[in-house]
Amino acid sequence: MSVTAPAGFEAAGIARGLKSSGDRDLALVVNRGPSTAAAAVFTSNRCKANPILWSEQVIRDGSVSAVILNSGGANCYTGTFGFQTTHATAEAVAEALSVSAGDVIVCSTGLIGTGDQVFRDRVVGGVPGVVAALTQNGGTDAALAIMTTDTKAKQSVAAGDGWSIGGMAKGAGMLAPGLATMLVVITTDADLPAAALDRALRAATRVTFDRLDSDGCMSTNDTVTLMASGASGVVPDEATFTAALTGLCHDLALQLQADAEGASHDITITVVNAEAEDQAVTVGRSVSRSNLFKAAIFGNDPNWGRVLAAVGTVSEAEATFDPYNIDVTINGVMICKAGEPFEDRDLIDLTPRAVTVLIDLHSGDAVASIYTNDLTHDYVHENSAYAS
User: Fold this and answer.
1) Phi-psi category of 98—alpha, beta or left, where left has phi over 0 and alpha has psi -120 to 50?
2) Hey, which residues are catalytic here?
3) Which of 25, 131, 143, 321 could be joined to 168 by an S-S link, Cβ 3.0–4.6 Å?
4) Tens digits of per-residue pLDDT, 288-316?
5) Nearest alpha carbon to residue 359 among 386, 388, 338, 387
6) Using CA atoms, how far apart are residues 115 and 104, in angstroms rounded to an integer?
């Protein structure tokens, strides 16, 4: 049941004509309490959509009563009119639920520049209908409503000792930090204050959504919101809650990776024995953003030279390593040892969808993984025709 698995939450997803397909495109997740503690993280892109500008203010007091989300239009770079649309959307939700508009997170996803009067009428005018559709079993409908180029809904649930966490996510393209092009709503019936939720959420997203780098393109609308109803009456240990939340975010991130636009391989790049974790992340990300490497994987070609070439673009200030003492292992076969050819490349089978690349820097003991995809004809086609 996704976001409605924890006690205290209702959700809905309806169609309002924002999508040309006529599918569901307006979602609402409501926290019925007794607590409204919340936390949220947003895109680090300086070019922020109107819903981000609004929601950054909403989360400041750590209280959120509802999240309303639309697909079919990003409401980004739509000027003052677009911000007024976001405000009007929050006001409409607040009136319908008898809550404060300052406690309503607003999220939009779709084509940048979409947010005219027709868009406003369909979103704001859809609020009464989506409120009327709210149910304790509405999580899947909400997850379907936030999809854009996604081919399937992304949902996950994690169970604790007397409490639970539920989540839904959307995202298939522009997957890169911060957060990747995603809208994510996470709910829990654990009883935790906003400060603890914020710490847990930032710890979880740092090693999950922020490590998803499918195509190196950062969105303007990324939002991950965590709401706690406290309905279970259970106050879990913060470390235990953070671990469960991280597991749920990791599951959702891998679902996003698996549904990346046009991808035929899901690639996990793990950098080991780095001097520091941030250095391992930088090295892994440099490989994940190499179009030459990604194209090679698409062609089932274990071209380890492209891995080393990408690693070499990282400056000495960014990561410490000897470029002639690096090992590269692809799908369990060490194809390069100490910067030289090692095992026979014909031992590597790249026909399965899952691909693992292990890069050993021999510089320390830090480890980090980056999650990416190959570069395919379908990805190019889908993104060349996105506006139409």
Assistant:
1) left
2) 181
3) 143
4) 999 999 999 999 999 999 999 999 999 99
5) 338
6) 19
